[in-house]
């Protein structure tokens, strides 16, 4: 372990939650490393417009991400690349293993967020990247001349459907109920948009293709049991989120669904390990709540490290 780089705090994930935790912890004079398996910004990079972040009428997700990154590094926090594979506990030390390097920290903040759930129907994996997408902002432009379908009824499905309506020929939202889960204002915009339509009580049972690319979806109306096909070149799947907690099972800090349980100071059941943002078991997954969590944990790690025995603190 002699060659492992040491930090006071290692933050896993550089989305809004991790970046805010880095701002607070480094501003408290702790040495901080933010590790991410990709570019900083997290889900904000896949969001076109953010209209509910205080201080901005509207801001592009990647622009907000750049601003947060600048804040998070201004007091000396470092940003590094690496897929965190697991965390070992040895006394007060937390050993963070990544696919590249290993690190030792006095405290760890898990800010790994969540990712899109797959639908789990035939054709979905086969045609991923060939008509099946989980990111309208990334892939919408490939479907300029297409009638696309969006699956789901939450904020992601309806907002990304609205984004797609600006880019493609038409958008049909396929939802398994007849009520959307999305915020009211978003629903109203979608209902008012001439390029958007909705098919209710509609479940996709298969994504169809010609071997090369998507050609349509097979659906069933769960009220009438009628089966039909919808021709489309693009299928955008937004059927919910699952937590990024793979590799952390040994810590035993999640609920049954894998979301990390914390107290209101973002402390998990393991001393010196905190969790923030979407990866937590919580009600509202937003940028505002992620940064709120991040600030609480950034202060929390300072309190935690300050209370460690002098011989541990000084290493
Ligand atoms: P994330 O943003 O998910 O960041 C987690 C980071 O952890 C990622 O960068 C990931 O690469 C990294 N990571 C994961 N696992 C590992 C690992 N093992 N090793 C290293 N790094 C890892 N909220 C709003 O407030 N307004 C909006 O307009 C809005 N629009 C949205 C649109 C869409 C399509 C989606 C999906 C979400 C939207 N949200 C919006 C929700 C918002 O984006 C999230 O609540 C927020 O990004 C959560 O922040 P986070 O830092 O907890 O996680
Ligand atoms: P979500 O809120 O969990 O919605 C998932 C949708 O997919 C629901 O409508 C659900 O149907 C449907 N669904 C789930 N499993 C399905 C299946 N197997 N087959 C067909 N449909 C299925 O997920 P989300 O929309 O990705 O949002 C996740 C979080 O991010 C939420 O907290 C959301 O508020 C937040 N977010 C916020 C914004 C914003 O603030 N602007 C934007 C995007 C996301 P039912 O309705 O029948 O359950």
Automatic annotation (TrEMBL):
Q: Which cofactor does it need?
A: FAD
Q: Which family does it belong to?
A: Belongs to the class-II pyridine nucleotide-disulfide oxidoreductase family.
Note on cofactor = Binds 1 FAD per subunit.
- Name the Gene Ontology molecular function terms of this record: thioredoxin-disulfide reductase (NADPH) activity
Where the record annotates domain FAD/NAD(P)-binding, the positions are 7-294
Q: What is this protein called?
A: Thioredoxin reductase
Q: How does it assemble?
A: Homodimer.
Q: Which SUPFAM superfamilies match?
A: FAD/NAD(P)-binding domain
Presence of the UniProt keyword Manganese in the record: no
Keyword Magnesium assigned to the entry: answer is no
> In the Enzyme Commission scheme, what number(s) does this protein have?
1.8.1.9
Matching Pfam families: Pyr_redox_2 (PF07992)
Gene Ontology terms: cellular component: cytoplasm
Organism for this UniProt entry: Leuconostoc kimchii (strain IMSNU 11154 / KCTC 2386 / IH25)
* Reactions catalysed: [thioredoxin]-dithiol + NADP(+) = [thioredoxin]-disulfide + NADPH + H(+)
């Amino acid at each position: 372990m002699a060659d492992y780089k040491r930090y006071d705090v290692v933050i896993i994930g550089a989305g809004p939650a991790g970046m805010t935790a880095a701002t607070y912890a480094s501003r408290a004079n702790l040495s901080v490393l933010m590790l991410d398996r990709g570019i900083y910004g997290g889900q904000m990079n896949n969001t076109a417009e953010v209209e509910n972040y205080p201080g901005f009428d509207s801001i592009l997700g990647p622009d907000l991400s750049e601003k947060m990154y600048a804040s998070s590094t201004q007091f000396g926090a470092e940003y590094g690349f690496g897929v965190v594979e697991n965390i070992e506990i040895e006394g007060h030390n937390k050993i963070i293993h990544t696919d590249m390097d290993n690190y030792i920290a006095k405290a760890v903040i898990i800010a790994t967020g969540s990712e899109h759930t797959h639908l789990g129907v035939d054709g979905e994996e086969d045609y991923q990247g060939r008509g099946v997408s989980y990111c309208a902002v990334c892939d919408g432009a490939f479907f300029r001349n297409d009638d696309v379908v969006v699956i789901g009824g939450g904020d992601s499905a309806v907002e990304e459907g609205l984004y797609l309506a600006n880019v493609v020929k038409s958008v049909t939202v396929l939802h398994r109920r007849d009520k959307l889960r999305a915020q009211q204002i978003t629903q109203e915009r979608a209902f008012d948009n001439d390029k958007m339509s909705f098919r209710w009580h509609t479940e996709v049972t298969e994504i169809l293709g010609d071997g090369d690319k998507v050609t349509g979806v097979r659906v069933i109306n769960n009220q009438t049991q009628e089966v039909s096909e919808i021709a489309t070149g693009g299928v955008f799947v937004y059927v919910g989120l699952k937590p990024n907690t793979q590799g952390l099972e040994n810590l035993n800090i999640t609920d049954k669904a894998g979301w990390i349980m914390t107290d209101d100071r973002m402390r998990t059941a393991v001393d010196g390990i905190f969790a923030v943002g979407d990866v937590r078991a919580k009600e509202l997954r937003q940028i505002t709540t992620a940064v709120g969590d991040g600030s609480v944990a950034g202060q929390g790690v300072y309190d935690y490290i300050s209370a460690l025995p002098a011989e541990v603190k000084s290493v």
